[in-house]
Amino acid sequence: MVEWECLFAGGDFEDRVETGEPRIVAGEADDGCVVFVVSHGLVTALARAERFRLHEIAASWVGWRAEDGEVIETDVAGEILSDLAALACGAARQRQGLYCWVA
Fold first, then answer.
1. What is the model's pTM?
2. How far is Cα of residue 93 from the mean position of the Cα atoms in its chain?
3. d(CA 62, CA 95)
4. Residues 6+ apart with CB under 8 A from 4
5. Which of 32, 65, 77, 90 is the most buried (most CB within 10 A)?
6. Rounded CA gap, 97 and 90, in Å?
7. pLDDT of residue 72
8. Measured on CA atoms in the order 101, 51, 9, 43, is the torsion positive or negative?
9. Helical H segments across 1-103, by residue range
10. Given this model, what pLDDT does residue 29 score?
11. pLDDT at 76
């Protein structure tokens, strides 16, 4: 999520982490299972993003992950971001937050 926020809004990954992003709301970071809040800025960016922008971000994310040796297909990355954007639209419409569970 922090990577996506950096790709949408710019900025540095480490700076965002130092400011408390992502904010963990449940679980223990030590055991790897956590629930965190998707930042309002990312929810807004996702909810407002046009399809071509989501594909641009997906391509950038694929490149970023490849630098760490992780292979993600561009189409899969695009689907992930498109699905997340749909969730963000619903959350924004209902004035609700968006959360992510990582195990």
1. 0.83
2. 18
3. 30
4. 42, 46, 57, 61, 81, 84
5. 77
6. 10
7. 94
8. negative
9. 2-9, 13-18, 40-48, 51-67, 74-93
10. 60
11. 96
Would you give the distance in Å from CA 67 to the centre of its chain?
18
Rounded to whole angstroms, how far apart are CA atoms 15 and 21? Answer: 9
Q: What are phi and psi of 102, to 5 degrees?
A: -125, 130
Q: Which element (helix H / strand E) includes 32?
A: none
Strands 33-38 and 23-28: antiparallel
Which two three-digit tokens encode residue 53?
A: 């922008």
With CA atoms as reference, report the closest residue to 36 among 52, 20, 50, 22: 22
Q: Which residues contact 36 (CB under 8 A, 6 or more apart)?
A: 1, 22, 23, 24, 25, 99, 100, 102
Query: What is the pLDDT, as a whole number, of residue 15?
Result: 73
Helix (H, G, I), strand (E, B) or coil at 10: coil
83: left (phi over 0), alpha (psi -120 to 50) or beta: alpha
- 39: which DSSP letter? P
